[in-house]
Amino acid sequence: MKTISLGIAIGLCSSYCMAQSSVTLYGEIDEGISYINNAGGASTFKMRSGAWDGSRWGFKGTEVLGGGYSAIFRLENGFDVTSGKLAQNGRMFGRSSYVGIASPYGTVTLGRQYDPVVDYLGPILASGRGSSPVYDLDNTGNDYQTSNSVKFASNNYGGFSFSTLYAFGGVAGQFSTNSVVGVGAGYSSGPLSAGAAYTSVRNPYQTWYDGTGASSILIYGAYLPSARDLNIAGVGASYKLGNFVAHAGMTRSVLTDSINGSNAQFNTYIIQGDYWLRTDIRLTAAADLTSATIGTTGGHPKYRQFNLVGDYLLSKRTDVYAWVLYSTAGDGATQAQIGQLTASTTDRQVNVHVGMRLRF
């Protein structure tokens, strides 16, 4: 009888402990084949990992502390399926690595994490459109993470929420060097979702870009290494009407003191429509217009990108997709560049891509 009682007690304790804490292994693999009509002067077929969503795996966990408080953490890796290499410049957990406390008032996290632009504009302006325009300068495609950061995210209050982030620069005697400040808010209720966010990155070439890769960015790479700040502000909204979802928004990205002591400014206007042909088939059309003002040069180049995307859900975790993207450059701009592909040598570029995503 004592043995039975002990076994029951151990079982109850085990169940209690399991209920109080949990760790989840998760991830996503995105791999496909792309055709690019002009990549550095020649057409090419190539394998591409993470063309739509960055391939990743990670751990996230929660421990209930009592009184409505929980300890939380996330460690998320990014990698290239095609080669097996680490992404985010070789970081082990380059996408996210943070720990924090969730409370009845909100969540505080510390580590490497995403800014409020990703929280409140990404889900509205990047959902379903495929490759982001202008090398994701505005970070709505969540390509850039912020290290050394403290973040507060509020709970949801009747559909409204907000967050704020501050990243310490870590340079002795220069408190603001390499620092980041961000704030955002959103509202979601019924068919309507809306968001607004602002992020300011001091010394963005080092803070977000790790001091590498500017030469491959046709549209703003020449201004990035000398920029004092990257200031991003944006608004966006989506509305669902039956099987159709409309998205619209605008972002303004300014690289301050980046060319002869003046600013390089990029305004991007986004409009998108999603139509669910069936519960497992989504069709998307999107148009992005970027209008730039390049300091004292008087240049006002324009870049346009048009996306047609089809997505077929094989299950809740697996889908296959295809897209056709067409980009043009004008008003003084002579070369087009879609997302993070190699730039065209002409003012036109086309990308056809077929891919598969599997989530676990």
Structure description:
The chain has 360 residues and is mostly beta strands. The protein has a domain at 32-54 and 116-144 and 169-359: Porin. It contains four helices and 17 strands. It has helices at residues 2-20, 116-120, 122-125, 204-207; strands at 21-36, 44-49, 56-66, 69-78, 96-103, 106-113, 146-154, 160-167, 180-189, 192-202, 229-241, 244-259, 262-278, 281-294, 302-313, 318-330, 348-359. Strands 1-3-4-5-6-7-8-9-10-11-12-13-14-15-16-17 form a 16-stranded antiparallel beta barrel. A hairpin with a 2-residue loop joins strand 3 (56-66) and strand 4. The longest helix is centred in the first third of the chain and has 19 residues, at 2-20. It is globular, with a radius of gyration of 22 Å. The chain starts with a helix and ends with a strand. The model is unreliable at 1-18 (pLDDT under 50). It holds the Pfam family Porin_4. Keywords: Cell outer membrane, Ion transport, Membrane, Porin, Signal, Transmembrane, Transmembrane beta strand, Transport. It is a multi-pass membrane protein. Residues 1-19 form the signal peptide.
